[in-house]
Design a protein that fits this description.
mainly beta, four-stranded antiparallel beta sheet, 13 strands
Length: 171
């Protein structure tokens, strides 16, 4: 959702007919008025759309928006992080995965990593690496899930986690 976009357009996949047009300024205004949102956390990218849910990221925030609701009630949940989201996240049936930059401020060290957010509630459930920033040679980037592999394509390298259960064991 580029900052210069005027509308979020919802189309019927079967017919191509426009179902709804939501002014992006209305969504951004709604986020800015919430007690946890501000101008640096307004939605800037669409991660996924599934039925009536649209998953958005911006700055250090992850949002779930119900596009069928009036704009004043459209935010289902907001998940803030202490550091910025880096790259594109990945949405599954029960989770949203996003990469968070390592902290540059001493108060924010140990907050980076690949985070799993519960899709229904927006609660942060776990991260890899656990309770610390990225390990040497790892870093944030675009997340892709393929079968039993999770791929993080960062700016310096691509990391492939062949079994998320193994990564969870290190949590």
């Amino acid at each position: 959702m580029p900052t210069d976009a005027k509308h979020l357009l919802i189309y019927d996949a079967g017919t191509g007919a426009e179902i709804k047009r939501i002014a992006t300024d209305d969504i951004r205004d709604r986020v800015s008025q919430s007690k946890t949102g501000d101008d640096s956390t307004v939605p800037q990218a669409i991660l996924a759309v599934d039925k009536n849910q649209v998953f958005l990221t911006g700055g250090s925030s992850l949002y779930c928006v119900d596009w069928t609701q009036p704009v004043e009630n459209c935010i289902v949940w907001h998940c803030p992080f202490p550091n910025n989201i880096a790259g594109r996240g990945f949405v599954t049936a029960d989770s949203v995965f996003v990469c968070i930059e390592s902290g540059t401020d001493q108060r924010k060290y140990g907050q980076g990593g690949l985070w799993r957010v519960e899709r229904v509630t927006g609660r942060r459930k776990e991260s890899y690496p656990a309770k610390k920033d990225w390990d040497e040679g790892e870093g944030p980037g675009n997340v892709l899930g393929i079968g039993d592999q999770v791929i993080v394509a960062g700016s310096k390298r691509v990391n492939i986690y062949a079994d998320m259960a193994l990564a969870r064991n290190r949590l």
